[in-house]
């Protein structure tokens, strides 16, 4: 799987694919597009990001083979209907998959939204109710407006300026808290 370190190869592949369709762009135009695909303002920002990860020797080889991926929190739930109302209806997550070992067994499922994945579990040993997680994100004001428009009867979360970050906290029916945060730098 390619990441930002392969941006020049990605730009070259894009140019070649477009050329097959008689469309031409310069290499620098392709690099700018690739940078935007990674959510960055321009190629210079992406090039700096690539430079941060470069190094030499054994440490560089280790970085090539070692890659940590997203952590997926396990959230303890007790009632599938209440969890569905909160996570699907209110927060707008989608069901990726679910699993039960048999009829009348506890549910374990993965849900996701915009790249964030959570595992919800009815299994007693998987997690402790009352957990807390922080989710960093851009566009927190949009999320706040979306949640306010849903008029969820059990929660009306506010948007708080915490000096350098905006924070919106929600609590599920099982006392698990999610703090959505956007860094503002002020």
UniProtKB/TrEMBL annotation:
The UniProt record lists the keyword Cytoplasm: no
GO terms (BP aspect): response to antibiotic
Xref: InterPro entries: Bleomycin-R (IPR000335), Glyas_Bleomycin-R_OHBP_Dase (IPR029068), Glyoxalase_8 (IPR045517), VOC_core (IPR037523)
UniProt keywords, alphabetically: Antibiotic resistance
Keyword 4Fe-4S applies: no
Pfam family, one: Glyoxalase_8
Domain VOC: 67-183
Position of the signal peptide: none
Family: Belongs to the bleomycin resistance protein family.
Protein name per UniProt: Bleomycin resistance protein
Naturally occurring in which organism (per UniProt): Stappia indica
């Amino acid at each position: 799987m390619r990441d930002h370190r392969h941006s020049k190869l990605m730009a070259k592949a894009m140019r070649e694919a477009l050329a097959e369709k008689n469309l031409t762009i310069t290499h620098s135009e392709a690099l700018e597009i690739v940078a935007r695909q990674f959510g960055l303002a321009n190629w210079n920002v992406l090039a700096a990001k690539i430079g941060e990860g470069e190094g030499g020797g054994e440490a560089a080889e280790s970085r090539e083979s070692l890659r940590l991926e997203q952590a997926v929190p396990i959230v303890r739930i007790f009632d599938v209907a209440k969890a569905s109302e909160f996570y699907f209806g209110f927060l707008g997550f989608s069901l990726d998959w679910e699993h039960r070992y048999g009829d009348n067994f506890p549910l374990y499922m993965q849900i996701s939204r915009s790249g964030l994945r959570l595992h919800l579990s009815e299994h007693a040993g998987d997690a402790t109710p009352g957990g807390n997680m922080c989710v960093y994100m851009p566009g927190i004001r949009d999320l706040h407006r979306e949640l306010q428009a849903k008029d969820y009867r059990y929660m009306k979360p506010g948007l708080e300026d915490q000096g350098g970050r905006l924070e919106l906290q929600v609590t599920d029916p099982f006392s698990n808290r999610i703090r959505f945060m956007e860094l503002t730098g002020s």
